[in-house]
Amino acid sequence: MPQTDVSQRASTGPRSQWRPALPLLLPAYLWLTVAIFLPLSAMAFFSFMTELPLSGKPWAFTLANYAAFFEKSFYAVLLRDSLRLALEVTLWCALLGFPCAYVLAKILKGRSREAIFLLVILPFWSNGLVRVFSWAIALRGNGLLDRTLNAILPFQVNVDLMFSYPAIVIGLVHSYLPYMVLTCYLTLQAIDDSLIEAARSLGASRFTVLRRLIIPLSLPGLVAGSVLIFVPVVGSFMEPRILGGRAGTFYGTVIEDQFVAVFNWPLGAALSFILLAVVLIILGAASPILKRAA
Amino acid sequence: MMGTTRLLELLGRAFVGLMLAFLYLPIFIMALMSFNASPFYQLPMDWTTSWYEALARNSGLIDATWNSLRIAVLTTVIATILGTAASLALRRYVFPGKRLLRALLFPPIAIPWLITGTAMLIFFFGVGIGRGLHAIVLGHVALALPYVIVVVSARLETFAPEYEEAARSLGATQWQVTTRVTLPWIAPGVVAGALFAFAVSFDQFVVSYFLSTPGEATLPVEIYAAIRKGFTPEINAVSTIIMTVSMGSMLLAARFFRFGGEK
């Protein structure tokens, strides 16, 4: 009976609607199960093994992979470095992205706002690897950036930043800045201009309006942007490799090595799972603020 | 008073200008250097198109480009169909466990690709799926699906279920209701979801990297390998082409949606 009334269907209880929903839901969720949820479970399982069971070698359950993290300070130090890198990149993105979003949302109007917004978001839609590579060209000593700066500035500067920590930060900020602009823009735009005008006409200084009105109201955007940046940067490996050279050993690059160079997959799985725990803690800490906004 | 406001606004505009310079500077330098004859990027510029000619003969990069395009198209088709179907079910029917199903969409988006990619490598290797282009498609669809479902669901929110009821009461079958009433309404959302899926797949590096084999790689994986072997100006050339094409098509899409939205 295809012509059943909706209210009639609802009155027969929620259980009955599983049947028509299932064929539509099953393909998508089956795919997600096979390609995301089962792999994550398998990784959790492997992280407690001495060897991959497929390699034919004898294997046993062990806690050694996790013990390695806690016994050798090497991994913990790298994780700390990666967390610091992520914090620095997030802060720079907030410092640069928030004012930019403010200008876009509150100062620019009409077509110029639309055009500049598009220009800010545009690089975001191109390949991230290629953008990091472009910095590798720009930051070379005696390169174009170096020469241009020395031609403009009255004093000599040396911007041979390639293969250094600042190069990694610059590349990562460049990659993730559009996230911050986007999330801040969305919350800033939702602030009613008359609120700001009212505060100003009641005698609040610009700084007070910023501190007491604009920042608290746009906090969800700042937090959402920070989470979107912090989480992938903690696990980044491609950017430190390309821009950091020897200075580019981080937690992510060590995990990459376990899978593509050292072939110690169980250790790699354990390190990945520790990273996942860190990520979940961050997401859990941010969720109350994000929920309040939603 | 007015003067301070004007000054601050001017400073704000200048700041945005500087930020745009920061965003586009390296891309311009890279594009410029792809036309420089010196493979060590020596200045002054010695203009040439020889790196583009070399690129046209580089079968490794060309094969990888085709792989990337094929995978992206396949991913887009599969993820859009499966994702739209799931969105329809999540909107249309009332059933227990719906909140859980919605919540399950976030881990694939929120968990760093490094973790997802290495987990896929372990599992696919373990169950015999192995690595290669088929494994990459399997992974890419899973990464793209949540984006499609979120985008299409957002569009479905604006769809009044009364339209479906009206069509049903006039005697339309479930299939007719879906294809003649619901799908035309959500078409902009489906197109946006498909664009997302294509972008997620075509730009994807991390997951492809762990699932590729030397013969079966995508363009970003090939580029990464070439960068790590040493800078090659051909990579400059191919990167410049990718940048131009992806930014150009995004500008076109933006125009399309603007006009689509105003109608």
Explain the overall architecture.
The complex is a heterodimer of chains A (294) and B (263). Chain A contains 13 helices and no strands. Chain A has helices spanning 6-11, 18-46, 64-71, 73-107, 110-121, 128-138, 144-152, 165-189, 193-201, 206-234, 238-244, 251-260, 265-293. In chain A, helix 8 packs across helix 10 and helix 8 packs across helix 11. The longest helix of chain A is centred in the first third of the chain and has 35 residues, at 73-107. The two termini of chain A are 39 Å apart. Chain B has 263 residues and is mainly alpha-helical. Chain B has a single domain, classed as MetI-like (MetI-like fold, Orthogonal Bundle). In chain B, 80% of the residues lie in helices and 0% in strands. Chain B is globular and about 75 Å long. Residues 259-263 of chain B have low confidence and may be disordered. Chains A and B meet through helix 2, helix 4, helix 5, helix 6 and helix 7 of A and helix 1, helix 3, helix 5, helix 6 and helix 7 of B.
